[in-house]
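thread: overnight batch results

M.L. [08:02]
morning all. the overnight job finished for the chain we discussed friday. pasting input first so we're all looking at the same thing
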Amino acid sequence: MQPGALGVEAGATAVRTPGRPALARGDLVQTLGPSAVLVVLVVVFGLASPQFRSMNNLHSMVDAAAVLAVVTVGITFVLLLGCIDLSATGVMAACSLTTSLLVANTRNALDLGVWGVVVTVLLGGVFGLLNGVISVRLKVPSFMATLGVSAIGIGVATVMFAGVQPGLVDPWVSGWATQRWFGFTQLAYLALGCIIIGWFVQRHTRLGRTAMAIGGAEDVLILSGVRVGPYKVAAFTVAGCCYGLAAAMATSQLGAGLVQAGGGYTFASITAAIVGGTLLSGGRGGVLHSMVGVLIVSVLANGLVLIGVSPYVQRGFQGLIVVIAVGGAAWPLRRRLVVVK
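M.L. [08:03]
and the structure it wrote out:
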């Protein structure tokens, strides 16, 4: 660590000492606050709408949140780095058309079954790899790099679409959205599996631990001799694979490959991750935190529909929640910033 950094850290410790209890309370709010918000929303909507409390509504809400959960798992790894990923919409567009054209469909004779889905997930990983290489190797800011890759994905999807919608007739992939186990569609179980794998990777692999450390103190890792570039590229690649799986799931829901399959998921996934406690600045949060955010966003959307609130107003609520969540996350950190003159 550089001498100047030691001086700053020492000064910061001296300044922060009287305020440690306040910071501890702030950290507690960031950790438990989203869960408390979720409980409050469930209670409020449960009292306001008897339909909200029904098992059928629970099944519908979980099934509707499955694709968003998978996208959010992926974007969480990028946010932990302190980066941003805006490519989900374009990647999902390309991967949705890929899924529908590789499994049994109404436009060609291909019927690769499970291998079509595997290729789709790998294609998503390739887009994620491209995000990482452009951002890390070419030093392009992540939001610009991923926005460009999203445009590429939409362009590829438009070419594959070719003005003819490929309908999905593969019984296995179509069954994800229709066949139920214990009241939930197979999409919910796919999402659960992705969440478990994502949590394991984040908590118990070098990639997950290093991604968290990069977001917390990238400069310190570099000074310690850690090559952070490969870990960043790997995190973007993992995110891309999640987008590919989410695209296949969305295609199952829609019954066809569509360029618009990923519409809205970029903003919704970032919203969910932030609301759940995964910081935009990186180094804080994780998959389980983000999943609490997915539940908050899903419960809010479902509850507002049941009490008759307009969809346009719902988007306003989402934006307001993001502002409040970002402000709430930044507030306890304000006293950690020390200016050395």
